[in-house]
């Protein structure tokens, strides 16, 4: 719709006339054209029917038809990330798209056309209006002439019969006469007649006359007259003018009423005004209101025994019990600034009286509470405190106010005005909780008002009393738990509850609020409090306090504090008891009442839900597994996940992080598989990848995806990556499972498992599989991208290679992709699949850090040679992908300096010398290795790789195999017998021993020295964490941990990585939460393969040395340093929604252990006592 036809212009003219009629009352009283324009400019803010006008709807449709395509195009550009950069002033896509749209040619053309058309329409309306006006004036003159001849002889007549009829319009001279008749010295009858005539006159004429100032003065005098008929007439006129008066007159009328009320303290229903006023009008209206409300009877205040008189604020409270007028004034910054400035400078006594007289009447209390609650929401409102109050020696601070509100909640737990819904909303408890919840939701308010020791003490006072065995009212316990849970959701509040030990326990010792809450929760679940025999505690109270604990134990630092109480066992015990009762319910009989109530079912689900939330942290997941309820919890989580339910009222994100955490362990992934979660993810992925939306009519054909992973499949792709990130997940889902390799696949046959995805999308080894896919290239590319990420974990790759012979399959695919397939000769065809296969082949065919190997990109280049990188069709890899490395450097001086200290404190001296050597970065300079350490896979590479790197001899492969066999035999003698169906417990440690391989390279392939070192190293604590096979179901572990299937590297090291990351690098921690990925997953991958493929060989050596010499806790500090080093990249890839892909595929560029040694030493000073002591507790016999 670029041009308007004559019919469009006629329709626009009709719609515009309708709009002007709708706002006639608003603009007819405007004293000037500028005021009328101001009213029209703010019509959307002041007219609630603005969007219902047909003219507005017409313009909206015109804008959408003119700019819809432009907006969609710009939105797609920014969504894909290939649009123009979004600057700091345009921090949202909306702003950026709006700016680009307004700069477009279509927008300028639309505005020009619209302006030209509207000028024609408005000019036509004006001409028609002038014609109608001339006709109307002619008729009015005739009518006026007839009235003048019958009622008065001239315009200045002051006879008794004048102005007693309705007028079409009124002249200024007539209003001057009315003003003179209203003079207080005139007779009552004459004043009454003048008021009667004024009420008949049009308000716009009266309010725009030159004699308004004198008229207002006489009207105010009439309003104070003892004669009620006179004052009623004035009020009628004021009520009539409020609906159509301009801003300056509205201010005058409002001020007049306020002044009269201030003089006589009479009550009147005064509507609040919340519109756009200029500053002088706004300030005068607000000041008149506050002046009126600030009035009080000095006699009543000085005579305690006398009857209390009603004051203005009492009457306002009756009219507006929840102080809506004050909330609206405080809503906008413009009016709020005026209110707070006047309160601070002139009317601070109003705050004092609101505070001290709340007990006078319930209505007054409610009104005062709403005013105070709104006041303390804002910074300048809180600055009014402390407030001096009569009968109180010390001023009332913000903390005092909150404490008093909490005590009011305790004293009035039930509604005081009946049991109706409206009465419940006005009960003191609900009103106080509404204020406190509002404060909790605002960080600054919560810090100043709630995160204070006296407030926490007041909240927990009834709880401590019950713990001491004394009987108190329990009706407010749910509200206490609600407030504590809200406080625990923020970092500041959680820290206050966990670490401030200012509460006196029942035993008389100083403890933190967290200890009080968990002790009370334990006794609630066990019903061990003596006073509970006299009280009936509903399950809702127990559930509310469990939820408070949950807000603490679903964080690493909270679990650290609550772990000694074994709360997971208490909740699991209560759940088993409730569950067993529901299982014993007999078969229902028709007509009989249900044997189990809905409350009992809700209680069972509540316990299961709270138990599930232990899985939010690595150590918590271990505790959940030890309860034996992990399968039931994951099934419950899956039921909520499929219904798209929120985790809790305090949780911002969904179940993504928790699912990722659970999938990191063997028992967790098995529980996800049995619950149906894995199948749901696979089916959703297959539906997005291979199935179209058959129920939607195709109007616009779907565009061909340009990215390897289409946007429609990205969410499912990332979910699958999170699910399969851990090698434990791959072992459990794919270990010892052969591919179906069917002779025929039904086109409607959907993949329902990870094995099906491997068979249909990755291992495509037959024409049948190709023909079974609707979108072969896109689906196979998707499968290869998934395979690339799986192979980033070396243990996962070795499993896939040993079972499915991946490398040979991919190589054959490259050999078949030539211009002459039958002969196998010709040039390679460069397409998406060959490029993706080439990348995977180089990735799995080489090992090395960022400066030790070169990976081909996935994108083509412009020019004659779009893909200059060599295509891999056979192994070994072309030399292009193997970077030149410097000769091995050995610093004998450094080794001697490390080994010559044989004094009593030799280890401390060794650490100091190590730090000095690391500072100069001269410890080692060994080159890297490109040897895949899998017996089946390494035989395909010549032994010359070791010779080329000057680390291994040509026959070192057999030596490495011998070392691995010795290690396996040695460790198998120290494993407990576990009866489990988990694949990780079958045939020993399922992964490769990367630490032993690292030691083998450090010892230059000497089997004897390597084995001797490993045997001696196994006696030390660092071996438990540097050497993963060392503690796999080991006899050195507590039996419940050894049989759990969860390695201490995950439950201990990864737990402290997440805990310290939140404190030290909070932006990175938040990025992980937003992405649904967990720091523990990538750290487990780094540590499990000794940083192979992520760091250069010298840094791998430094990692091993620093953990052995400085202590095993440096494993945690190493991960924190690496994540800190990657902070900018992590934040960037969080925005592009590929954080998982980046962390798994990309090495850690530019990271040097020596550069972060000082930072790690700082972490040691702050956290060693906690981290190292927990590591030692795992192996009490280790030193």
UniProtKB/TrEMBL annotation:
Domain BROMI middle region: 173-264, 279-357, 359-772
Region called Disordered, residue ranges: 134-159
Stretches with biased composition (Polar residues): 146-159
InterPro entries: BROMI_C (IPR055392), BROMI_M (IPR032735), BROMI_N (IPR055391), PHAF1/BROMI (IPR039156), Rab-GAP_TBC_sf (IPR035969)
Superkingdom assignment: Eukaryota
Main location: other
Alphabetic keyword roster: Cell projection, Cilium, Cytoplasm, Developmental protein, Membrane, Transmembrane, Transmembrane helix
BP GO annotations: non-motile cilium assembly
UniProt key word Transmembrane: yes
Domain BROMI N-terminal: 12-138
Places the protein is found: Cell projection, Cilium; Cytoplasm
Residues annotated as domain BROMI C-terminal Rab TBC-like: 790-933, 943-1178
Protein name (database record): Protein broad-minded
């Amino acid at each position: 719709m670029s041009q308007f036809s004559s019919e469009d212009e006629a329709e626009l003219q009709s719609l515009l006339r309708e709009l002007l009629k709708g706002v006639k009352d608003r603009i007819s009283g405007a004293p000037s054209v500028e005021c009328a324009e101001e009213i029209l400019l703010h019509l959307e803010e002041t007219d609630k029917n603005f969007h219902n006008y047909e003219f507005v709807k017409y313009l909206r449709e015109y804008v959408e038809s003119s700019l819809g395509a432009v907006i969609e195009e710009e939105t797609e550009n920014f969504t894909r990330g290939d649009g123009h950069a979004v600057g700091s002033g345009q921090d949202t896509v909306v702003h950026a798209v709006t700016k680009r749209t307004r700069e477009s040619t279509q927008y300028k053309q639309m505005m020009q056309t619209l302006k030209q058309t509207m000028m024609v329409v408005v000019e036509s309306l004006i001409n028609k209006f002038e014609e109608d006006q001339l006709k109307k004036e002619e008729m009015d003159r005739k009518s006026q002439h007839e009235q003048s001849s019958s009622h008065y002889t001239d315009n200045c007549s002051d006879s008794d019969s004048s102005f007693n009829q309705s007028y079409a319009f009124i002249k200024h001279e007539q209003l001057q006469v009315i003003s003179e008749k209203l003079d207080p010295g005139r007779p009552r009858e004459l004043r009454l007649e003048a008021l009667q005539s004024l009420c008949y006159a049009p308000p716009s004429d009266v309010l725009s006359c030159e004699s308004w100032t004198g008229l207002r003065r006489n009207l105010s005098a009439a309003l104070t007259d003892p004669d009620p008929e006179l004052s009623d007439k004035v009020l009628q006129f004021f009520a009539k003018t409020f609906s159509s008066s301009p801003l300056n007159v509205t201010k005058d009328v409002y001020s007049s009423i306020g002044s009269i009320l201030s003089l006589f303290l009479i009550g009147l229903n005064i509507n609040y005004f919340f519109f756009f006023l200029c500053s002088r009008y706004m300030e005068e209206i607000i000041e008149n209101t506050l002046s009126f409300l600030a009035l009080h009877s000095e006699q009543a205040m000085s005579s305690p025994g006398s009857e209390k008189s009603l004051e203005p604020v009492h009457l306002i409270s009756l009219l507006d019990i929840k102080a809506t007028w004050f909330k609206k004034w405080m809503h906008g910054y413009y009016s709020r600034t005026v209110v707070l400035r006047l309160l601070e400078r002139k009317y601070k006594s109003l705050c004092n009286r609101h505070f001290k007289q709340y007990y006078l009447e319930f209505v007054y209390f409610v009104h005062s509470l709403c005013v105070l609650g709104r006041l303390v929401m804002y910074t300048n409102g809180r600055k009014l405190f402390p407030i001096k109050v009569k009968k109180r020696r010390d001023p009332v601070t913000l903390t005092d106010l909150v404490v008093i509100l909490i005590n009011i909640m305790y004293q009035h737990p039930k509604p005081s005005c009946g049991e109706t819904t409206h009465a419940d909303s006005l009960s003191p408890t609900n009103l106080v909780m509404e204020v406190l919840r509002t404060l909790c939701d605002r960080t600054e308010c919560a810090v100043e008002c709630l995160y204070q020791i006296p407030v926490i003490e007041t909240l927990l006072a009834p709880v401590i009393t019950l713990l001491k065995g004394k009987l108190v009212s329990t009706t407010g316990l749910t509200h206490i738990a609600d407030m504590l849970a809200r406080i625990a959701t923020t970092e500041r509040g959680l820290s206050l509850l966990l670490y401030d030990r200012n509460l006196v326990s029942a035993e008389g010792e100083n403890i933190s609020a967290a200890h009080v809450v968990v002790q009370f929760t334990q006794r609630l679940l066990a019903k061990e409090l003596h006073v509970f025999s006299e009280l009936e505690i509903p399950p809702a109270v127990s559930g509310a306090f469990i939820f408070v604990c949950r807000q603490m134990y679903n964080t690493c630092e909270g679990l650290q504090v609550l772990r000694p109480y074994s709360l997971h066992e208490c909740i699991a015990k209560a759940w088993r008891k409730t569950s067993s009762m529901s299982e014993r319910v007999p078969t229902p009989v028709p007509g009989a009442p249900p044997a189990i109530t809905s409350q009992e079912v809700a209680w069972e689900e509540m316990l299961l839900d709270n138990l599930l939330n232990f899985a939010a942290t690595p150590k918590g997941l271990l505790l959940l597994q030890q309860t034996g309820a992990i399968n039931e919890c994951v099934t419950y989580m899956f039921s909520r996940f499929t219904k798209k339910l929120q985790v809790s009222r305090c949780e911002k994100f969904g179940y993504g992080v928790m699912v990722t955490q659970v999938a990191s362990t063997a028992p967790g992934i098995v529980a996800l598989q049995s619950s149906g979660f894995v199948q749901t993810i696979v089916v959703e992925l297959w539906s997005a990848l291979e199935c179209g939306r058959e129920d939607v009519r195709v109007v616009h054909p779907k565009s061909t995806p340009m990215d390897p992973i289409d946007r429609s499949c990205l969410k499912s792709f990332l979910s699958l990556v999170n699910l399969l990130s851990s090698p434990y997940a791959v072992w459990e889902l794919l270990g010892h499972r052969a591919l179906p390799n069917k002779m025929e696949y039904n086109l409607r046959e959907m993949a329902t498992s990870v094995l099906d995805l491997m068979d249909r999308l990755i291992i495509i080894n037959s024409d049948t599989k190709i023909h079974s896919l609707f979108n072969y290239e896109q689906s196979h590319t998707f499968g290869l991208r998934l395979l690339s990420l799986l192979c980033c974990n070396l243990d996962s790759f070795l499993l896939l290679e040993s079972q499915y012979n991946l490398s040979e399959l991919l190589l054959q695919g490259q050999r078949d992709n030539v211009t002459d397939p039958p002969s196998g000769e010709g040039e390679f065809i460069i397409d998406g699949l060959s490029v993706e296969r080439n990348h995977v082949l180089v990735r799995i065919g080489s090992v090395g850090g960022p400066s030790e190997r070169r990976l081909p990109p996935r994108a083509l280049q412009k020019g004659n040679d779009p893909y200059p990188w060599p295509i891999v069709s056979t192994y070994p890899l072309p030399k292009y992908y193997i970077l030149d490395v410097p000769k091995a450097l050995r610093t004998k001086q450094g080794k001697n300096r490390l080994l010559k200290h044989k004094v009593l404190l030799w280890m401390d001296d060794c650490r100091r010398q190590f730090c000095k050597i690391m500072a100069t970065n001269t410890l080692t300079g060994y080159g890297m290795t490109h040897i895949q350490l899998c017996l089946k896979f390494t035989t395909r590479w010549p032994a010359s790789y070791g010779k080329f790197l000057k680390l291994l001899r040509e026959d070192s492969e057999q030596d490495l195999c011998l070392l691995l066999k010795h290690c396996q035999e040695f460790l198998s003698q120290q494993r407990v017998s576990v009866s489990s169906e988990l694949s990780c417990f079958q045939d020993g440690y399922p992964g490769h021993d990367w630490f032993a391989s690292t030691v083998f390279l450090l010892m230059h392939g000497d089997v004897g020295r390597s084995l001797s070192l490993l045997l001696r190293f196994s006696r030390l604590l660092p071996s438990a964490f540097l050497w993963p096979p060392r503690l796999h179901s080991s006899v050195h572990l507590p039996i419940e941990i050894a049989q759990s299937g969860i390695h201490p590297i995950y439950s201990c090291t990864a737990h402290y990585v997440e805990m310290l990351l939140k404190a030290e690098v909070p932006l990175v921690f938040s990025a992980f939460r937003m992405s649904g990925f967990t720091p523990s997953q990538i750290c487990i991958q780094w540590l499990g393969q000794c940083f192979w493929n992520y760091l250069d060989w010298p840094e791998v050596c430094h990692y091993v040395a620093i953990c052995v010499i400085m202590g095993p806790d440096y494993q945690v500090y190493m991960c924190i340093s690496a994540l800190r080093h990657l902070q900018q990249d992590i934040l960037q890839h969080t925005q592009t929604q590929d954080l998982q892909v980046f962390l798994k595929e990309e090495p850690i560029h530019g990271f040097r252990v020596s550069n972060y040694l000082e930072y790690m030493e700082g972490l040691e000073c702050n956290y060693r006592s906690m981290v190292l002591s927990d590591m030692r507790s795992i192996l009490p016999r280790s030193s």
